[in-house]
Structures are given as structure tokens and as C-alpha cells.
Design a protein that fits this description.
Elements (H helix, E strand, L loop, with lengths): L9 E2 L7 E6 L2 E6 L11 H13 L7 E6 L4 E3 L3 H7 L3 H7 L1 H11 L5 E5 L2 E3 L1 H7 L3 E6 L4 E3 L2 H5 L7 H9 L1 H8 L5 E2 H7 L4 E4 L3 H16 L15 H12 L7 H17 L4 H16 L1 H21 L9 E6 L3 H11 L6 E3 L3 H5 L6 E5 L7 H4 L3 E5 L5 H5 L3 E6 L9 E6 L4 H13 L3 E6 L5 H18 L4 H11 L5 H5 L4 H12 L3 H13 L9 H21 L5 H12 L8 H4 L2 H9 L1 H4 L5 H10 L8
Parallel strand pairs: 3-4, 4-6, 5-7, 6-8, 7-9, 8-11, 12-13, 12-14, 14-15, 15-16, 17-18
Antiparallel strand pairs: 1-2, 2-3, 9-10, 16-17
């Protein structure tokens, strides 16, 4: 019997039916809340329930359908990734994704207008789920953003028609930014680019979505609206040419995945519709790419990141008062950070522009970000925990009763949004809340234990020291770029150097290598000036870089700075773009590889210090990091 919507009816979610169902004023609201999971996963249980609802619904009385989330920070984070991990053949990928693909298609074929109300992360197949709806609205909050993970993070093609439907909606060039190049769009950006139809204040999302649905029903008389498409057919050849030139700069092993994705995108735009052949080809290519060894290595990093996230977050409580954050100081770095944080609205957090307003909220949930000099007087009287923005974690500051941690931003605000949060262990609960807050504000955050300076700073020195030695000894910078790109690095040294404090880096590298600061600066200048990567490949140089990074990570663990290899692996992925195709530093530097590297004494000697060589040699006789 069809469900009636003449009166309000609520069906609560459970293990096998993760959608709760509510009918209000002729609109069917489906709220996804994956049980016992921090994020929403559109799994087979969700697919079956959605198909059941759409099959049994009485669309004579239901005039619209709203798909929304019951989790504050997640609309849908994915299921394609889990299927890709499980699939061992392309045929298995087709079979494993079948129920979800059928549910998406039923949503596209729904006879009444469908609306995706997006609050929280909308990743991968979550974007494709939103695309299956006729309209999309979003909450204007820092935890709401749109991101296609498949190609950029895991080196396989989407499987739920993302390569076909995004170009039809947004045009080829704009969709390439999302599909190929890993852009993360806020709700406002998604609206500006045509992915989202309206953006609402997060506190008004439910009421505003109801009003939006009522307007849609009035405009469409409750009938399916025509499909909206904006293909830029006239410019397809020129856009494809520009994208191919950019793809040519990627490591050779990555290019087939990017090329095939681009080909499917262009075909959809040229056809002006999703054809059966293109749909079948996307499924096939997604399965093939997901089963490739390179993608399996990249997929393994997802689980490493989850371990690191769990370690950083700990057992953070949710029944706590809002976090109160203020700022004190007038350095450029503090002003830039304050500007970044005050423009993001993070749930359960209030940002104060003045110490006076912060003082009204003194307590365990109050944090004041200060510059390198420890404050007294007005700030001290607030009783706030102090978070010191500085690359140094000197002993005096660590002994200060109020300091809970240090914040280090290795790259300028124009570069990667990466922060190191070095905890003094004075208030672990506050550190965990700061990690959550800064992550929700859009930063990649590495949590370390304070002591001995910035861990990420040491990581940068470990990365660049072999490169500086290579250039100083007469090596060609083009060989560095060619070798690292062949290894799978996409952000080459010259790209990173554009966002670093070169004076600090030259001084630190001088201390590490023993070279004069001026000589180091010249070597960095040659790396930065290089415009092509047409040199020869030297595997020994790659071994030297990996050995230097491995020695740094080993010291982090020995000192307790980063106590688990997953934390170090994530730190080095974010800091220097350790290649996805090798999984992570510690999964790549197996005991067998360490033995091969150290078996030839001359292999590392030119570019790696004797101390680092000794660390690597010891590790070659020990158990693996994840053993």
C-alpha cells in the first residue's frame, strides 16, 4: 500500500533502514543518518531503503522529495571508496556498485521534483547523489564543502556518473577543477559555479529548505522539471587541449586515469546527454582503475589517515560548551590566521575579535591565540588557555601554566592550508577540541607533542637537505624534478618553495648540511627557477630523499613528537606530497627496501648525513613500522 502524506507521519531510522522518513505539507523528507558512524555512508542498506520508498510512494499526493542529513558534519562522505577497496576485478566493481547505481537512477527518474539539502561534507559519491536530484541547496558553514575524491585522492574514476553529469551541468572546464584537480568548494563557491541553487544560513536550513520546496512545487505544479544543462560545446577542443597540457605535467603513471576521465567528460558534453555507452564505459573504466595496484596503494592511505584522525581526536566529548576562541597580538602571521578563522563559521565555536569579549567566557572552553611573546595583564586575567603561534616551542613557553600548545604554519597563507598543533599535554581535551575546530575550519592539522621546535619544520629540512646537497655537488635541478615526478610527486620542490620562508629555510638547511647560508640560498634559487622537468631520472636521489624523511620520522617516534607511524605518514603526505601511488612513507620503506638501500654504502653517502644513514641501517634490521 502506498504511503499516505495527507497527515504528518514519521518513520525513524534503524540499522537496516538508515533513512528516517517524514511527510509535511505534501513534501517527503528523507534524512540519512548512518548508524554508529561519524559520517554518512550511502551503502547498500541506504540504497535498498531509498528504492523501497520510491517504489511504494504515492506521488499523487507527494509533490516533492527532500534528501537531507541527520549528521551536522556530513551529508554523504561516500561508498565508492569502500567498494573500490573490496573490488578485485572490474566485473566485481560493477556488481558491488549495482544496488547503489540503481537507487541513484530511481532518484533521477522520480516523477516529482527532488531536492538535496546539503549540510556537512559532500564527498565523492555524495556529490553524485546530489547530482541525481533536480535541485541542490546548501548550508553556509565551514563544514559544508563539495569535493570529488576519486581521481585526486585515490587514482580511480568515479562510478556513479560524476564524469558525465558534472560537465553537463557545469561545463567542461569548471567540472575539471572539481573532478581532476581536487578543488574543494564551499557552499558559496558551489552556488557561484552553478552546482548549488541556493545557500542558507545553517541555523535556518530546515525552514529555508521547506520554503524552497514550496516554491519549487508552485513553479513545477509538483511535476519533474526539465534537466538543466550548460555544455560549452563550442570550446570543447580548446578546453581539452588545455587540460591535456596540464595532465602532461603529472607523473606518467597518473596520466592514464586523468586522460580517461577527461575523455568521458568531453564525450558527455559533445553528446549533450548521458548515453548508455558512456555510462557503461564509466563503470568499466572505474573498475579497471580501482583494481590497478597504484590505486590500491592510494586507497590504503585512506585507512592510514583514519588512524591518524582517531589518534588526534582521541575520545573527545560532544556534551561540552561551545569553544570560545580569541586573539591577542599584531604580527602578520596572527592577522592572517585570524582573518582565515573569522571568515569560517564552525559549529559549537565562537570566535572573538577582542580580548574583552573573550574574557566574558573564561573557563576550560576558552582559548586565546597569541603571538610569540607570552601575554600578561589583560589576556592573563581572562583565564584562557594560551595557544602560541610560533615556529618555536622553547622551554620557557612550555613551562608556562597557561600554554596548552603551539601553532605553526609552515606555508604562507597562499600555500597549502596546513597547521601543526604542538600540544604541551597540559590539557589534552582542549587540544582535541582545537584539532576538531581547526579541521572544521578547513585546515589540514597535524597534532604533535611540543618540544624541540616544529616537527613540520624539521620535516621540510629533511626533504630539502638531500636536494640541496645534490645541487651543491653539481647535480642538475632538472634531474631532481624529473626523478621526483617519476616517483609520483605532483607538487615539485619549486612549487613548495614559492610558499616558504626562504630565509628561515636557508638558515635551517645550513645548520643541517654544514654549507654556508649563501650557498644554500643559491641552491634553493636554482630549484625555484626551474621551469621544466625534462632532465634524467636518478633513482639514487629518490632513495636519498626517502631515507632522509624516514630518519626524520624515526626521530619523531623516538622522541614522542609523533608517536605513531600513521601520524608521521599523514604529516609527510600533507607537507611534501609523498606520492599516493606508494601509499605512504612507512608502507613504501619496507624492511626489504631499507636493506636494499643500505646494502650499497655509496648509494646514500653523497646526499644523506651519516647520522641519518645510521638510523636507516638500524631500521633495516628491525620490524616494520606497521608490523
Amino acid at each position: 500500500m502506498p504511503l499516505s502524506v495527507t497527515t504528518n507521519v514519521t518513520v525513524m531510522a534503524d540499522e537496516t533502514r538508515p533513512f528516517s522518513i517524514e511527510h509535511r505539507q505534501g513534501v517527503l523528507y528523507l534524512t540519512l543518518d548512518t548508524p554508529r558512524c561519524e559520517v554518512n555512508i550511502f551503502n547498500n542498506a541506504a540504497a535498498r531503503q531509498l528504492r523501497d520508498v520510491l517504489t511504494t510512494q504515492d506521488f499523487a499526493t507527494t509533490r516533492a522529495l527532500v534528501l537531507q542529513s541527520g549528521k551536522e558534519g556530513s551529508f554523504v562522505n561516500g561508498v565508492g571508496l569502500l567498494m573500490a577497496v573490496s573490488a578485485q576485478t572490474p566485473e566485481a566493481a560493477r556488481d558491488l556498485s549495482g544496488e547503489v547505481r540503481d537507487a541513484y537512477q530511481m532518484l533521477r527518474d522520480c516523477p516529482v521534483p527532488t531536492i538535496a539539502a546539503v549540510r556537512g561534507n559532500c564527498y565523492g559519491c555524495g556529490v553524485e547523489l546530489a547530482l541525481a536530484c533536480d535541485y541542490r541547496v546548501a548550508a553556509n558553514t565551514s563544514v559544508t564543502h563539495f569535493y570529488m575524491t576519486e581521481v585526486n585522492d585515490y587514482l580511480f574514476l568515479p562510478i556513479f556518473e560524476g564524469t558525465l553529469r558534472l560537465p553537463l551541468l557545469l561545463g567542461l572546464e569548471r567540472s575539471a577543477d572539481l573532478l581532476l584537480w581536487g578543488q574543494r568548494w564551499s557552499a558559496m563557491q558551489a552556488q557561484a559555479y552553478g552546482l548549488v541553487d541556493a545557500v542558507f544560513d545553517v541555523d535556518e536550513l530546515a525552514a529555508s529548505t521547506a520554503v524552497f520546496a514550496a516554491k519549487v512545487v508552485a513553479q513545477t505544479a509538483g511535476r519533474k522539471p526539465p534537466t538543466r544543462r550548460r555544455p560549452d560545446v563550442r570550446d570543447v577542443a580548446a578546453i581539452v587541449d588545455r587540460q591535456r597540457r596540464r595532465i602532461a605535467q603529472l607523473p606518467a603513471s597518473y596520466r592514464p586515469v586523468y586522460e580517461r576521465t577527461l575523455e568521458l567528460m568531453a564525450r558527455a558534453v559533445e553528446a549533450g546527454e548521458v548515453t548508455t555507452q558512456d555510462r557503461d564505459d564509466e563503470i568499466l573504466e572505474s573498475g579497471r582503475s580501482a583494481c590497478a595496484p597504484m590505486a590500491k596503494k592510494a586507497l590504503s592511505f585512506f585507512f592510514i589517515r583514519q588512524v591518524a584522525h582517531t589518534l588526534a581526536l582521541g575520545k573527545a566529548r560532544t556534551d561540552v560548551p561551545p569553544l570560545q576562541v580569541g586573539f591577542h597580538g599584531d604580527t602578520d602571521a596572527l592577522r592572517e590566521l585570524r582573518a582565515d578563522l573569522t571568515t569560517h563559521r564552525v559549529p559549537a565555536t565562537q570566535v572573538h575579535r577582542s580580548v574583552e569579549t573573550l574574557a566574558r567566557h573564561a573557563g576550560d572552553a576558552t582559548v586565546c591565540v597569541v603571538d610569540g611573546s607570552l601575554p600578561t595583564g589583560e589576556v592573563a586575567r581572562t583565564g584562557a588557555h594560551l595557544l602560541v603561534l610560533t615556529p618555536s616551542t622553547d622551554e620557557a613557553a612550555r613551562e608556562h601554566d597557561g600554554v596548552v600548545g603551539f601553532l605553526h604554519r609552515p606555508y604562507a597563507s597562499t600555500g597549502p592550508a596546513l597547521l601543526e598543533l604542538a600540544s604541551t599535554d597540559r590539557s589534552p581535551a582542549t587540544t582535541q577540541r582545537l584539532y576538531r575546530y581547526l579541521t572544521d575550519a578547513g585546515f589540514r592539522v597535524v597534532v604533535t607533542r611540543a618540544g624541540g621546535g616544529s616537527a613540520l619544520g624539521h620535516g621540510l629540512v629533511a626533504y630539502f637537505a638531500p636536494l640541496v646537497r645534490f645541487v651543491h655537488q653539481g647535480g642538475a635541478p632538472s634531474t631532481i624534478d624529473a626523478s621526483l615526478r617519476d616517483f609520483g610527486v605532483t607538487k615539485l620542490p619549486r612549487v613548495l618553495l614559492d610558499h616558504l620562508d626562504l630565509r628561515w629555510l636557508a638558515t635551517a638547511l645550513s645548520a643541517s648540511t654544514g654549507y654556508e647560508p649563501a650557498d644554500v640560498a643559491r641552491a634553493l634559487g636554482r630549484l625555484r627557477a626551474l621551469e621544466t622537468a625534462s632532465g634524467s631520472v636518478d633513482p639514487r636521489l629518490v632513495d636519498g630523499v626517502c631515507a632522509s624523511l624516514f630518519a626524520a620520522a624515526s626521530r619523531w617516534r623516538a622522541r614522542g613528537t609523533l608517536r605513531h607511524p600513521a601520524l608521521a605518514d599523514v604529516a609527510l603526505r600533507e607537507l611534501v606530497d609523498f606520492p599516493l601511488q606508494h601509499g605512504s612513507l612507512h608502507t613504501y620503506m619496507t624492511r626489504e627496501r631499507l636493506r636494499a638501500i643500505t646494502g650499497d654504502p655509496e648509494r646514500l653517502r653523497p646526499w644523506v648525513s651519516e647520522d641519518d644513514q645510521e638510523v636507516v641501517a638500524v631500521a633495516a634490521t628491525s620490524r616494520g613500522a606497521y608490523a
